[in-house]
């Protein structure tokens, strides 16, 4: 056995290397233990030629080792040389099997170990934790003694596995060493994080390879990937080198094939190889056996750590990806800092301290950054599962704000997709739009704004500060990352959404306590466009709340499906069966990809028994639906043509994106005289560039949907805008500001073809200057002759789309300019009445 080292560092990734270099620079006795024959196994396993990023760019690097963005081989070579130059004590082929304290027993600390036997049974032993020094036993039987231990082992050795049928077939792999090894293959990369994107780019990088590469991402956005990677991916897609499938999951894998579940149904595709990059989880068994406790029982939870990275086992420190910080610069800074802390430098502040200080500067109380982070983490429920290190990264994308009593935080019907958490004080929700004095209070720890986050709909109520309060505003991007990284946060957002949806929809004097059992039994399910949630004639008594997206209700009459109603997010369906029993009386299908909350009838029925008012309310609403069903069926013979027309128009509008719109332009062809005043007015209002193509688009019966922005609930165009130039305005309009760089991502992402790239014309002169001197373009959109003669050929193109004439009085110019009233703008809740406006049938 060797002498006792001051520090034993396990793992030579960026965090471990940086820690060892700092220990060497300070002259501390140390050993760096690496189980392989090379340094930085995580970077070593990157695909050959991979560009290693140095983000966040604003973060200062403290490490004794240099690091700049560059190729994998360059970074590894530099670290090999500098590790040798610093005389770091490295021991390779040193795999650790156990870490056990050898000092005095730690009072009150009992550790349980589980041993699996060959017969399948397990044996649980309890043992008293011992204080440092620690004995590290290696795979070869040798031992190392150390006063302190730094765990920098990362998580890459414990990847998330494919759980679908066929996930263990030999052509499924979880690592890509060299993309050049694979040629002329159909390859699917599963996972939309940085690793998945980089692997896909590497496999599609050389056209001579002949690979057909498809990236599959279960979400609709690349919320966890670096911006630079997303931009490179989109460029590769636009060049035809990569296909991207969003909102897609793997159903099964077969030799030579993959079966995918997409928003439009099942797809079976040829597949020679699958690269699964779905993230990884901490090697929990080993870490817990060292005496380190985790923040929760979730598989993705991280160890409990102090502000100086010390775990619940005294003298064992955790840094890097195992601590929840996967970015290389963060890891290297932690490696540097942890050795400083171990050496007694307790005054050292983290490298991101100045950035966070600026964020908290305007708040009252004079707290330190660490105190603010802990206050937010401990006081806001959805943040409880985060470590102090995760909180630091989280706050880089969020804002803490102070409000005075009476301040309005947001107003009813205002657009917004951010989530708010209450750290101190109380806010008041104005539940009655006609009487602001009727409010419901939300206190410390609670969240609000979840409707905008989940459904994309406008704010459902005005919320103002009831007392002086401190709130954390979480951007949609940060909220999605939070819910992905912290399972407890995702569960809490789902619970709150379910509870408040029930309270808002059903009212009837319900309280959160009344809903406890129903909420506990609820489950969130995703429905692809066109998928039936409820089928007419089937058995079942579950109730469904539309969480996001929208539904349409149909009834079979005379052997044909007749459109009954449109059900937007925030509504419910399925109540008839739970009240009166019997089979389902209509079919409910998703108009667009939608999330629903399923509440089992057996959990909802006791609520009806306990709350007669709720039953009466549901019966009243059910009665109106029953009357509509009966009326349409009774008139099916005499009004068959009208019913068919109504159903056809309604289905047509849903198929053309009205189901996810917040504002869509419709033209009644029975009134339109083809004067083009709508296009001219649009051009006059936007520097001569019309945002409207009246003749383009599709028509059914008397209704025409021209090519004009629908201002979607979750705008597709916003999904990948590098300069963040696309915003939702105060009245719900989606607009593009002057920071647009003309990349074209929004045009490519829009499924409705309403965005185009065009050169911005020169500023328009005064009318007299045009009339007398011919300066500038005239009224209306500039013609081809003007563009050819005067337009700057070097002028960059920018994205052009409808902005609903934001900032102009009187509303959209296209509607104002229509002399016959043919042009109207509607939201999804209004379009059914439009569908009934059959001018020919009365």
Key features?
FAD/NAD(P)-binding domain, Jelly Rolls, 5 domains, 43 strands, 28% helix, 26% strand, 4Fe-4S, metal ion binding, metal-binding
What would you say this structure looks like, in words?
The chain is α+β, with helices and mostly antiparallel strands. The chain folds into five domains: 4-157 and 282-351, FAD/NAD(P)-binding domain; 172-276, FAD/NAD(P)-binding domain, CATH 3.50.50; 355-485, Jelly Rolls (Sandwich); 516-635, Jelly Rolls; 647-760 and 795-835, Alpha-Beta Plaits (2-Layer Sandwich), CATH 3.30.70.20. The protein is 28% helix and 26% strand. Strands 1, 2, 5, 6, 9, 10 and 19 form a seven-stranded mixed beta sheet that branches. Strands 11-18-12-13-14 form a five-stranded parallel beta sheet. Strands 20-27-22-25 form a four-stranded antiparallel beta sheet. α4 links the parallel β12 (186-190) and β13 (212-217). The longest helix has 23 residues, at 612-634.
Brief description of this entry?
The protein contains 24 helices and 43 strands.
Largest sheet: 7 strands, mixed
| CATH fold title of the largest domain | FAD/NAD(P)-binding domain
Strand content: 25-35%
End-to-end distance: 96 Å
| Helical content band | 25-40%
Average pLDDT for all residues: 82
Radius of gyration: 31 Å
- Please report the number of helical segments: 24
Q: What is the CATH superfamily of the largest domain?
A: FAD/NAD(P)-binding domain
Say how many strands there are.
43
Poorly predicted spans: 836-842
CATH architecture of the largest domain: 3-Layer(bba) Sandwich
Class of the largest domain in CATH? Alpha Beta
| Content-based structural category | alpha+beta
Protein name: CRP-like cAMP-binding protein/Fe-S-cluster-containing hydrogenase component 2/thioredoxin reductase
Organism: Polymorphobacter multimanifer
Domain 4Fe-4S ferredoxin-type: 663-695, 732-760, 796-829
GO molecular function: 4 iron, 4 sulfur cluster binding; metal ion binding; oxidoreductase activity
